[in-house]
Amino acid sequence: MAELTLVIGNKNYSSWSLRPWLAMKQADLDFSEIRIPLDTPNTHREIRYYSPSGRVPVLLHDNLTIWESWAICEYIVENFAPQLLPGDRQARAFARSVSLEMHAGFYHLRQKMPMDCRNRFPGEGMNPDVHTDITRVKEIWYNCRHQFGENGPFLFGEFSLADAMFAPVVSRFITYDVPLTDSEKAYTETIWQLPAMQEWLNAASQEVEIISHP
After folding, report:
1. pLDDT tens, 3-29?
2. To 10 degrees, the CA torsion angle through 147, 153, 158, 159?
3. Residue 1: pLDDT above 70?
4. DSSP letters for 119-158
5. How far apart are CA 41 and CA 144, in angstroms?
6. Residues 122, 119: Cα–Cα separation, whole Å
């Protein structure tokens, strides 16, 4: 087992797994992964072997077990990749705030537009509550880019944990064909075309065969 091991769910569906996985890839960390298919009779037992919460993702580092996406991301920043949070104090505080808002909120968007990387459902799931969540996401993106994004194409210029936290939302916007402005499309394309994101998507596209033929 490598020094760092990330336990994740299906790449097609597990938005929480994508977040630390993408952050670790963008930080160019060497890690192995253990993928546990979700929604099978053995899922909970298999995850509980690694995680006290019974949920993915889980990071294993030496004799430590770190669970919850944001806790994993913060651990990576503290121990391996400080560049994943902006150096400027104001930008760093803003990045943490919007990341944790994403972590804790947007219930309607999550429920009505679940992550499904390999399929397309234009217009499905939209209702007034989802629209309110989407409007808030767009507001966050605008504020980050307008105030802190002058030095690059990401929310805070350079790639940060905030981009990792919103990557599953980018996937949702593409899956459900959410109407976007030109600047919003540019940001989604920036995330979608990351080599690491493409690696995740390619693996997700192959999971049907992996799961159907164990």
Report:
1. 999 999 999 999 999 999 999 999 999
2. 110
3. no
4. ---TTTT--HHHHHHHHHHHHHHHHHHHHH-TTSSBTBBB
5. 42
6. 10
